[in-house]
Amino acid sequence: MSRSALVVAGVLFALGALIWLLTTDRVVPVEPGPEPSVSSGTAAPDAMAPEPPTKAPGRPVPTGALDGPVPRVSTRAELIQTLNARGLNGEKLLSRYAEWRVARGFLGADPLSGTTAENAPAQVYAAMDRPTLKAMADSGDLGAIQAYAAGSLPGDPFTAVEYYGRASELGSAAAMGQIANVLADIGGLEMGDVMNDRPFADKLLALRGGDPDRDLRRDSVAWTLASIRQYGPILATPASMELVEGLGRSTDKELLTAICGQSLAILASLSAATAGRDSGSLPPVFVTERSLYNRLPCQDTAAPVTQPRALAACTASPAIGSYNQPVELWICPES
Q1: 116: domain range?
Q2: Model confidence over 234-265: pLDDT tens digits?
Q3: Which phi and psi angles does 27 have, rounded to 5°?
Q4: DSSP 8-state assignment for residue 252
Q5: Domain tally for the chain?
Q6: Which residues does 245 contact at the CB level (< 8 Å), separation at least 6?
Q7: Could you report the per-residue pLDDT of 80-127, keeping only the tens digit for each?
Q8: Residues 6+ apart with CB under 8 A from 307
Q9: What pTM did the predictor assign?
Q10: How far is it, in rounded angstroms, from Cα 62 to Cα 48?
Protein backbone atom coordinates (compact mmCIF):
# COMPACT_ATOMS: atom_id res chain seq x y z
CA MET A 1 0.00 0.00 0.00
CA SER A 2 1.16 3.61 -0.69
CA ARG A 3 2.01 5.94 2.19
CA SER A 4 -1.10 8.06 1.45
CA ALA A 5 -3.30 4.93 1.47
CA LEU A 6 -1.86 3.90 4.82
CA VAL A 7 -2.61 7.35 6.27
CA VAL A 8 -6.21 7.19 5.01
CA ALA A 9 -6.63 3.66 6.38
CA GLY A 10 -5.26 4.73 9.74
CA VAL A 11 -7.57 7.74 9.97
CA LEU A 12 -10.54 5.60 8.89
CA PHE A 13 -9.80 2.98 11.52
CA ALA A 14 -9.30 5.51 14.30
CA LEU A 15 -12.49 7.38 13.42
CA GLY A 16 -14.53 4.19 13.14
CA ALA A 17 -13.25 2.82 16.42
CA LEU A 18 -13.91 6.12 18.23
CA ILE A 19 -17.47 6.49 16.89
CA TRP A 20 -18.20 2.83 17.56
CA LEU A 21 -17.09 3.08 21.17
CA LEU A 22 -19.18 6.21 21.68
CA THR A 23 -22.37 4.96 20.02
CA THR A 24 -22.80 1.37 21.15
CA ASP A 25 -22.08 -1.14 23.88
CA ARG A 26 -23.43 -4.17 22.04
CA VAL A 27 -20.23 -6.13 21.68
CA VAL A 28 -18.08 -8.15 24.00
CA PRO A 29 -14.82 -9.98 23.32
CA VAL A 30 -15.20 -13.44 21.86
CA GLU A 31 -13.92 -16.26 23.99
CA PRO A 32 -11.46 -18.46 22.14
CA GLY A 33 -12.82 -21.85 21.10
CA PRO A 34 -11.38 -25.00 19.59
CA GLU A 35 -10.01 -24.82 16.08
CA PRO A 36 -12.33 -26.28 13.45
CA SER A 37 -11.45 -29.82 12.51
CA VAL A 38 -11.85 -29.12 8.81
CA SER A 39 -10.14 -26.11 7.25
CA SER A 40 -12.19 -25.87 4.07
CA GLY A 41 -15.48 -26.93 2.58
CA THR A 42 -13.89 -29.40 0.16
CA ALA A 43 -14.02 -32.43 2.42
CA ALA A 44 -16.87 -34.91 2.09
CA PRO A 45 -19.69 -33.90 4.49
CA ASP A 46 -19.80 -37.32 6.15
CA ALA A 47 -16.11 -36.98 7.04
CA MET A 48 -16.76 -33.88 9.15
CA ALA A 49 -17.52 -35.20 12.63
CA PRO A 50 -19.55 -32.76 14.76
CA GLU A 51 -17.72 -31.25 17.70
CA PRO A 52 -18.99 -31.78 21.24
CA PRO A 53 -20.88 -28.78 22.63
CA THR A 54 -18.85 -26.26 24.58
CA LYS A 55 -20.30 -24.09 27.30
CA ALA A 56 -18.67 -20.80 28.22
CA PRO A 57 -18.42 -20.11 31.95
CA GLY A 58 -21.51 -18.35 33.19
CA ARG A 59 -23.43 -18.72 29.93
CA PRO A 60 -27.04 -19.80 30.61
CA VAL A 61 -28.21 -23.08 29.14
CA PRO A 62 -31.72 -23.28 27.66
CA THR A 63 -34.29 -25.49 29.33
CA GLY A 64 -34.27 -29.07 28.07
CA ALA A 65 -31.90 -31.99 27.62
CA LEU A 66 -28.83 -31.44 25.46
CA ASP A 67 -27.65 -35.05 25.54
CA GLY A 68 -28.34 -37.72 22.94
CA PRO A 69 -27.70 -38.06 19.20
CA VAL A 70 -26.79 -34.96 17.21
CA PRO A 71 -30.12 -33.73 15.79
CA ARG A 72 -30.92 -32.86 12.19
CA VAL A 73 -32.19 -29.30 11.67
CA SER A 74 -32.37 -28.85 7.90
CA THR A 75 -36.15 -28.31 7.78
CA ARG A 76 -38.79 -26.59 9.85
CA ALA A 77 -40.26 -29.91 11.00
CA GLU A 78 -36.86 -31.19 12.11
CA LEU A 79 -36.07 -28.01 13.99
CA ILE A 80 -39.43 -27.97 15.74
CA GLN A 81 -38.95 -31.62 16.75
CA THR A 82 -35.49 -30.82 18.15
CA LEU A 83 -36.75 -27.83 20.13
CA ASN A 84 -39.77 -29.69 21.48
CA ALA A 85 -37.51 -32.55 22.59
CA ARG A 86 -35.65 -30.02 24.75
CA GLY A 87 -38.82 -28.92 26.47
CA LEU A 88 -39.19 -25.77 24.40
CA ASN A 89 -42.11 -24.52 22.32
CA GLY A 90 -40.77 -25.10 18.81
CA GLU A 91 -43.75 -23.55 17.01
CA LYS A 92 -43.55 -20.37 19.06
CA LEU A 93 -39.78 -19.99 18.68
CA LEU A 94 -39.89 -20.50 14.93
CA SER A 95 -42.74 -18.02 14.61
CA ARG A 96 -40.56 -15.41 16.31
CA TYR A 97 -37.62 -16.44 14.14
CA ALA A 98 -39.75 -15.84 11.02
CA GLU A 99 -40.80 -12.43 12.34
CA TRP A 100 -37.16 -11.49 12.96
CA ARG A 101 -36.23 -12.47 9.41
CA VAL A 102 -38.88 -10.23 7.86
CA ALA A 103 -37.98 -7.31 10.13
CA ARG A 104 -34.32 -7.68 9.13
CA GLY A 105 -35.09 -7.69 5.41
CA PHE A 106 -34.99 -11.43 4.68
CA LEU A 107 -38.05 -11.63 2.48
CA GLY A 108 -37.32 -14.74 0.39
CA ALA A 109 -37.81 -18.45 0.89
CA ASP A 110 -36.41 -20.12 4.00
CA PRO A 111 -36.84 -23.82 4.82
CA LEU A 112 -36.40 -23.36 8.58
CA SER A 113 -39.26 -20.88 8.88
CA GLY A 114 -41.37 -22.84 6.41
CA THR A 115 -41.41 -19.92 3.96
CA THR A 116 -41.62 -21.09 0.36
CA ALA A 117 -40.87 -19.11 -2.78
CA GLU A 118 -44.60 -18.91 -3.48
CA ASN A 119 -45.62 -17.47 -0.10
CA ALA A 120 -42.51 -15.38 0.59
CA PRO A 121 -43.07 -11.67 1.34
CA ALA A 122 -40.83 -10.85 -1.62
CA GLN A 123 -43.61 -12.01 -3.95
CA VAL A 124 -45.71 -9.01 -2.98
CA TYR A 125 -43.07 -6.67 -4.36
CA ALA A 126 -42.21 -8.84 -7.35
CA ALA A 127 -45.67 -8.12 -8.77
CA MET A 128 -45.13 -4.34 -8.71
CA ASP A 129 -43.78 -2.25 -11.58
CA ARG A 130 -40.64 -0.15 -11.21
CA PRO A 131 -42.34 3.26 -10.78
CA THR A 132 -44.56 1.87 -8.00
CA LEU A 133 -41.59 0.25 -6.29
CA LYS A 134 -39.57 3.45 -6.45
CA ALA A 135 -42.40 5.52 -5.02
CA MET A 136 -42.83 3.08 -2.14
CA ALA A 137 -39.06 2.80 -1.66
CA ASP A 138 -38.63 6.56 -1.50
CA SER A 139 -41.38 6.69 1.13
CA GLY A 140 -39.39 4.30 3.35
CA ASP A 141 -40.95 0.88 2.72
CA LEU A 142 -38.15 -1.57 3.53
CA GLY A 143 -39.35 -4.35 1.24
CA ALA A 144 -39.81 -1.93 -1.67
CA ILE A 145 -36.34 -0.45 -1.10
CA GLN A 146 -34.76 -3.88 -1.36
CA ALA A 147 -36.92 -4.93 -4.31
CA TYR A 148 -36.01 -1.74 -6.18
CA ALA A 149 -32.33 -2.34 -5.46
CA ALA A 150 -32.56 -5.95 -6.67
CA GLY A 151 -34.40 -4.85 -9.80
CA SER A 152 -31.50 -2.56 -10.68
CA LEU A 153 -29.19 -5.52 -11.19
CA PRO A 154 -27.20 -6.46 -13.10
CA GLY A 155 -27.20 -3.34 -15.28
CA ASP A 156 -27.06 -0.65 -12.59
CA PRO A 157 -25.09 -1.87 -9.55
CA PHE A 158 -24.66 1.72 -8.34
CA THR A 159 -28.38 2.24 -7.78
CA ALA A 160 -28.47 -1.16 -6.12
CA VAL A 161 -25.72 -0.16 -3.68
CA GLU A 162 -27.47 3.15 -2.98
CA TYR A 163 -30.83 1.57 -2.16
CA TYR A 164 -29.37 -1.37 -0.28
CA GLY A 165 -27.50 1.23 1.74
CA ARG A 166 -30.80 2.91 2.61
CA ALA A 167 -32.22 -0.44 3.69
CA SER A 168 -29.15 -1.08 5.86
CA GLU A 169 -29.77 2.20 7.63
CA LEU A 170 -33.29 0.98 8.40
CA GLY A 171 -31.86 -2.08 10.14
CA SER A 172 -31.86 -4.58 7.26
CA ALA A 173 -29.28 -7.28 7.84
CA ALA A 174 -30.12 -8.78 4.45
CA ALA A 175 -29.27 -5.50 2.71
CA MET A 176 -25.80 -5.42 4.28
CA GLY A 177 -25.11 -8.83 2.78
CA GLN A 178 -26.44 -7.70 -0.60
CA ILE A 179 -24.12 -4.68 -0.64
CA ALA A 180 -21.23 -7.07 -0.05
CA ASN A 181 -22.42 -9.26 -2.94
CA VAL A 182 -22.70 -6.36 -5.40
CA LEU A 183 -19.30 -4.97 -4.49
CA ALA A 184 -17.75 -8.42 -4.86
CA ASP A 185 -19.28 -8.79 -8.34
CA ILE A 186 -17.93 -5.49 -9.69
CA GLY A 187 -14.90 -5.15 -7.44
CA GLY A 188 -12.31 -6.48 -9.87
CA LEU A 189 -13.46 -4.59 -12.98
CA GLU A 190 -10.66 -2.81 -14.80
CA MET A 191 -11.37 0.82 -15.61
CA GLY A 192 -9.99 0.29 -19.09
CA ASP A 193 -12.60 -2.37 -19.77
CA VAL A 194 -15.54 -0.06 -19.07
CA MET A 195 -14.33 3.20 -20.61
CA ASN A 196 -16.53 2.64 -23.65
CA ASP A 197 -19.49 3.24 -21.30
CA ARG A 198 -18.53 6.60 -19.88
CA PRO A 199 -21.45 7.01 -17.41
CA PHE A 200 -20.76 3.54 -15.99
CA ALA A 201 -17.03 4.29 -15.77
CA ASP A 202 -17.66 7.58 -13.97
CA LYS A 203 -19.96 5.93 -11.43
CA LEU A 204 -17.48 3.11 -10.87
CA LEU A 205 -14.69 5.61 -10.26
CA ALA A 206 -16.90 7.51 -7.80
CA LEU A 207 -17.74 4.30 -5.95
CA ARG A 208 -13.99 3.68 -5.68
CA GLY A 209 -13.54 7.04 -4.04
CA GLY A 210 -11.71 8.44 -7.04
CA ASP A 211 -9.04 5.73 -6.93
CA PRO A 212 -9.15 3.81 -10.25
CA ASP A 213 -7.05 0.98 -8.79
CA ARG A 214 -9.19 0.39 -5.71
CA ASP A 215 -10.53 -3.16 -5.59
CA LEU A 216 -14.09 -3.00 -4.27
CA ARG A 217 -13.79 -6.58 -3.10
CA ARG A 218 -12.01 -5.21 -0.04
CA ASP A 219 -15.12 -3.11 0.65
CA SER A 220 -17.20 -6.25 0.17
CA VAL A 221 -15.27 -8.00 2.94
CA ALA A 222 -15.60 -4.94 5.18
CA TRP A 223 -19.39 -4.95 4.76
CA THR A 224 -19.52 -8.67 5.51
CA LEU A 225 -17.48 -8.23 8.67
CA ALA A 226 -19.65 -5.29 9.72
CA SER A 227 -22.79 -7.41 9.32
CA ILE A 228 -21.32 -10.19 11.45
CA ARG A 229 -20.28 -7.70 14.12
CA GLN A 230 -23.84 -6.39 14.20
CA TYR A 231 -25.93 -9.54 13.89
CA GLY A 232 -23.56 -12.33 14.85
CA PRO A 233 -23.00 -15.68 13.15
CA ILE A 234 -26.46 -15.77 11.55
CA LEU A 235 -25.06 -13.42 8.87
CA ALA A 236 -22.04 -15.60 8.14
CA THR A 237 -23.31 -17.73 5.27
CA PRO A 238 -21.05 -20.09 3.31
CA ALA A 239 -21.01 -17.59 0.41
CA SER A 240 -20.08 -14.61 2.56
CA MET A 241 -17.37 -16.55 4.37
CA GLU A 242 -15.53 -17.35 1.14
CA LEU A 243 -14.20 -13.80 0.70
CA VAL A 244 -13.70 -13.30 4.43
CA GLU A 245 -11.55 -16.38 4.83
CA GLY A 246 -9.61 -15.40 1.73
CA LEU A 247 -8.73 -12.14 3.46
CA GLY A 248 -7.57 -14.06 6.52
CA ARG A 249 -5.08 -15.97 4.37
CA SER A 250 -3.62 -12.77 2.95
CA THR A 251 -0.02 -11.95 3.78
CA ASP A 252 -0.75 -8.21 3.42
CA LYS A 253 -1.23 -7.35 7.08
CA GLU A 254 -1.58 -3.63 6.33
CA LEU A 255 -4.51 -4.37 4.02
CA LEU A 256 -6.05 -6.69 6.62
CA THR A 257 -5.80 -4.02 9.31
CA ALA A 258 -7.33 -1.40 7.01
CA ILE A 259 -10.31 -3.60 6.10
CA CYS A 260 -10.96 -4.57 9.71
CA GLY A 261 -10.92 -0.89 10.66
CA GLN A 262 -13.21 -0.08 7.74
CA SER A 263 -15.76 -2.61 8.97
CA LEU A 264 -15.86 -0.79 12.30
CA ALA A 265 -16.38 2.53 10.52
CA ILE A 266 -19.29 1.07 8.52
CA LEU A 267 -20.90 -0.25 11.68
CA ALA A 268 -20.37 3.07 13.47
CA SER A 269 -22.07 4.91 10.62
CA LEU A 270 -25.02 2.51 10.63
CA SER A 271 -25.29 2.71 14.42
CA ALA A 272 -25.66 6.49 14.15
CA ALA A 273 -28.34 6.07 11.46
CA THR A 274 -30.30 3.47 13.46
CA ALA A 275 -30.08 5.30 16.79
CA GLY A 276 -33.21 4.64 18.80
CA ARG A 277 -34.20 1.58 16.78
CA ASP A 278 -33.96 -2.00 17.98
CA SER A 279 -31.36 -3.08 15.45
CA GLY A 280 -29.30 -5.36 17.68
CA SER A 281 -31.80 -8.02 18.73
CA LEU A 282 -31.33 -11.64 17.73
CA PRO A 283 -33.94 -14.29 16.90
CA PRO A 284 -34.69 -16.81 19.66
CA VAL A 285 -33.39 -19.70 17.57
CA PHE A 286 -31.20 -19.94 14.48
CA VAL A 287 -28.72 -22.23 12.72
CA THR A 288 -25.24 -21.13 11.67
CA GLU A 289 -21.91 -22.23 10.28
CA ARG A 290 -19.78 -24.10 12.82
CA SER A 291 -16.83 -22.59 14.75
CA LEU A 292 -17.38 -19.26 13.03
CA TYR A 293 -15.37 -16.96 15.26
CA ASN A 294 -12.29 -19.14 14.93
CA ARG A 295 -12.41 -18.62 11.16
CA LEU A 296 -12.74 -14.82 11.06
CA PRO A 297 -9.81 -12.50 10.35
CA CYS A 298 -9.01 -9.37 12.37
CA GLN A 299 -8.23 -11.22 15.60
CA ASP A 300 -4.56 -10.16 15.46
CA THR A 301 -5.41 -6.54 14.64
CA ALA A 302 -6.53 -3.64 16.79
CA ALA A 303 -10.09 -4.24 15.54
CA PRO A 304 -10.92 -7.89 16.32
CA VAL A 305 -14.39 -9.11 15.35
CA THR A 306 -16.45 -9.29 18.52
CA GLN A 307 -19.80 -10.90 19.02
CA PRO A 308 -23.00 -8.94 19.70
CA ARG A 309 -23.69 -8.55 23.39
CA ALA A 310 -27.03 -10.33 22.96
CA LEU A 311 -25.22 -13.46 21.76
CA ALA A 312 -23.52 -13.93 25.12
CA ALA A 313 -26.85 -15.02 26.60
CA CYS A 314 -27.36 -17.67 23.90
CA THR A 315 -26.08 -21.24 23.78
CA ALA A 316 -24.80 -23.17 20.76
CA SER A 317 -24.89 -26.94 20.35
CA PRO A 318 -23.91 -29.19 17.44
CA ALA A 319 -26.46 -30.24 14.83
CA ILE A 320 -26.60 -31.54 11.27
CA GLY A 321 -27.90 -29.21 8.58
CA SER A 322 -28.54 -29.44 4.87
CA TYR A 323 -26.32 -31.80 2.83
CA ASN A 324 -25.24 -33.47 6.10
CA GLN A 325 -23.07 -30.49 6.99
CA PRO A 326 -22.24 -29.96 10.68
CA VAL A 327 -23.80 -26.74 11.94
CA GLU A 328 -24.47 -25.00 15.23
CA LEU A 329 -27.96 -24.63 16.67
CA TRP A 330 -28.25 -21.41 18.69
CA ILE A 331 -30.99 -20.93 21.26
CA CYS A 332 -31.44 -17.58 22.98
CA PRO A 333 -33.51 -16.81 26.07
CA GLU A 334 -36.88 -15.18 25.44
CA SER A 335 -36.94 -11.50 26.25
Answers
A1: 71-331
A2: 999 888 888 888 887 888 899 999 999 999 99
A3: -115, 150
A4: -
A5: 1
A6: 295, 297
A7: 999 999 999 999 999 999 999 999 999 999 999 999 999 999 999 999
A8: 27, 28, 30, 232, 233, 293
A9: 0.78
A10: 26
